[in-house]
Write a structure and sequence with these properties.
The chain is an alpha/beta fold and about 200 residues long. The chain has eight helices and six strands. The protein has one domain: 3-Layer(aba) Sandwich (Rossmann fold). Strand 5, helix 6 and strand 6 form a beta-alpha-beta unit.
Length: about 200
């Protein structure tokens, strides 16, 4: 059975941190492929201005076109309203019964996981992979949170202080994006004047 890791995100824009997460998950998670899944309206980002979805899809497409183990998955964009992971996982399992899926989350989301929509049901449907940064500790969790976190396969993630928020700020400041986003993404941002205002 093929093992696929789902890396969801706004990808506004996709950057090298996402690629490192994908590579770490492939190696330590024993996965065959990573599917990059842009979110339509992430529940935790309601009210924030998000770049139109066609731009975010195109940036992902261009970034991964020469990466044979990376694919674009637009399943969350087929629904209206907020994207709940539970609905997405049910749809993935229904469409691809011969694939074993894992859902990849960054260290900043691990602590928040107990607050996810219907998390107990979600944990029964999919394996979670959590990328833990050096020095990151889960010692201060409640016993309920620890029960949920023990279902997450923890893998190491190098420390990297790069975020989509920071990259958008750099564009406003006119700073170069060389080495923080894939070259095709940097070119697309310039061509389409994204994040300039």
């Amino acid at each position: 059975m093929k093992k696929v890791g789902i890396l969801g995100g706004t990808f506004d824009p996709l950057h090298i941190g996402h690629f490192i997460m994908a590579d770490q998950s492939l190696f330590y998670g024993g996965l065959d492929e990573i599917w990059f899944m842009p979110a339509h309206i992430p529940p935790h980002k309601l009210g924030r201005k998000i770049t139109p979805v066609h731009h975010r899809i195109e940036m992902v497409k261009r970034a991964i076109e020469n990466e044979p183990q990376f694919r674009l998955c637009t399943i969350e964009l087929e629904r209206d309203g907020p994207s709940y992971t539970l609905d997405t996982v049910k749809e993935l399992n229904s469409r691809y019964p011969n694939i074993s899926f894992s859902f990849i989350i960054g260290g900043d989301m691990i602590e928040y996981l107990p607050n996810w929509y219907r998390i107990e049901e979600l944990l029964s449907l999919i394996q979670f992979i959590g990328l833990v940064r050096p020095g990151y500790s889960l010692d201060n969790l409640t016993s309920k949170e620890k029960q949920i976190i023990k279902h997450v396969k923890m893998i190491p993630m190098p420390q990297l202080e790069i975020s989509s928020t920071l990259i958008r700020q750099w564009v406003k400041e006119g700073r170069p994006l060389r080495h923080v986003v894939p070259n095709p993404v940097e070119q697309y941002i310039k061509e389409n004047h994204l994040y300039e205002d």
